[in-house]
Amino acid sequence: MGPFAAVRAEFTKIFTTHLWWVLALVLLVYLGALTGGLGTLFAGLQSGAIEARGGHVPSFGDLAPPLYSFATSIGYVFPVLFGALVTAGEWRHQTITPTFLANPHRFQVLWAKICSAVVFGAGYGVLALAASVTGGALALRHFGLDPELGEVSTWHLFVRALAAMALWGFVGVGLGVLVPSQAAVIVTILAFTQFVEPLLRLAAAFSVPTADAAKFLPGASSDALVGASFLDLQNSAEGTMVVAHLDWQHGGLMLIVYGAAVTVIGCLTTWRRDVS
Amino acid sequence: MPGNTAPRGATIEIAGLTKRFGHVTAVDDLTFSVHPGRVTGFLGPNGAGKTTTLRMLLGLVRPTSGRATFDGVRYRRLSRPLMTVGAALEASSFHPGRSARDHLRVYAQAGRVPASRVSAALATVGLAAHADRRVGGYSLGMRQRLGLAFALLGDPGVLVLDEPINGLDPEGIRWIRQFLRRLAAEGRTVLVSSHLLSEVQQSVDDVIVIAKGRLVYAGELAGLASARGRAGQASAPAVIVDSPTRDVLAHALADARLAFEQTGDGFLVSGADAASLGHLAFTSGIELSQLRPATQAGAIEDTFIELVGEGGL
């Protein structure tokens, strides 16, 4: 009872199980390795230290922002999974019964889950940036490229990346409400974020009208909010792709719209249903 | 541990409560009340609608129509529900990775129950020594106790327990019976569901019996025996009698035109008392190995089964 008590209880739920730190650990290792590895490859190519096919030196433009944005363009799946699991997990373990007995105001419980997922999303953002900046900056510096850590624009990117990760936590809770089956929501999230959306964005990039539509996809909106993307590297290298971006404010707005949409639909369906 | 100043229980009022799932009516226009200071058994076969009724009472299931209240207040309108009503519904509502103490800590915070109640509730149910172990490693009996600790968390005046005896060992069953009696003696309202009358017969004052979602009996346990008359059969004295020569005894009973049926420990003879049967045996020269009045408990059990019969026991 009471919004503050509800949020406090959600934090206790999170800290008394393993999920939060297991996700954090996987995120650190995964992003650190990926940014370090790919950073080495791209920085090596750009500096000419690694010889590209045909002997020409490709230019990826400014390498630091897209490398650092791995934190969100790759790492966003972690806050989504987190938000979805703290919600769907209540049905999975039937703890939804004591949860609603202790606080029968279901919207207050949902609100508390959104608050805690947003805070943890931002927390995952800090870890993701730590991993991608460490891996990326080391790779850039190794090949004598500028890691741009003194630039104001780089720090603006960091702040927007934290906002994106926080919003992804919100989207995750919404998905967990909409699809309360834990297995189903995990499969949905992994399939959409890892296969469906990347393929759609790749396919859409071959023509202007499709690219214009694809910029509203959730991952594209997130990249717009952050202001840089892994896909930029690919596009600048290929030179044949069409990339349409929302500006960062609209990218953020689209993420809020996605989160609100799944949450509202979930509220009207599963969250109000009988607990039996 | 319930202290000297145990909170007085509220009266549970169920009025016209109905729940339909599609075309199936799980609970059909139930009306009854449960009073403080007494242990009330909520009985009926599996599938009779007991759990659905309790979940409607607790705001977890939305009734199709009707009301369920505590002193006139719906569960969702209670200002601190855990401190008014404690409920234990099933033995599996735990995250297996959480310890018992953490489990209770979460809900103490959510329900704004003082943190000191966590240890108190664990001690009351005898889980203090295992409080920091993961619940995933608990036995069914320990989970039942943890469920009960959750119900006691807010030191509530009303306890609603769904099949709390399932999975307990004999010592645990004895303990919970005494415990329920003590809670009622303190003035609390105690509602305990069971599909087995014999499980709760020793500890309840009142019983509510439902079958196929409908109320078939509400009143004192003792009244259940005479409800048999209302249920359509004459209530008559009955005696259990047995002999080393059963076939001879059966003949004599038939000759005397007595209604009797064979049971596990002899014959159950209705419409006769022990004295007249003893006389019959003596005059017929039959040795008796047993002669005693059929117990009240047996009659209550019979009535119960008769009331809920065809209910799919």
TrEMBL record, chain A:
Membrane spanning residue stretches: 20-45, 66-89, 109-140, 161-192, 251-271
The entry's keywords: Membrane, Transmembrane, Transmembrane helix
Origin: domain of life: Bacteria
Membrane found in the keyword field: yes
Protein name according to UniProt: ABC transporter permease
Lineage: Bacteria, Bacillati, Actinomycetota, Actinomycetes, Micrococcales
Automatic annotation (TrEMBL), chain B:
Record flagged with keyword Transport: yes
Alphabetical keyword list: ATP-binding, Nucleotide-binding, Transport
Similarity comment: Belongs to the ABC transporter superfamily.
Domain ABC transporter: 12-237
One Pfam family from the record: ABC_tran
Lineage of the organism: Bacteria, Bacillati, Actinomycetota, Actinomycetes, Micrococcales
Any one GO molecular function term: ATP binding
Entries under SMART domains matching the protein: AAA
Record protein name field: ATP-binding cassette domain-containing protein
InterPro entries named among the record's database cross-references: AAA+_ATPase, ABC_transporter-like_ATP-bd, P-loop_NTPase
The keyword Metal-binding is annotated on this UniProt entry: no
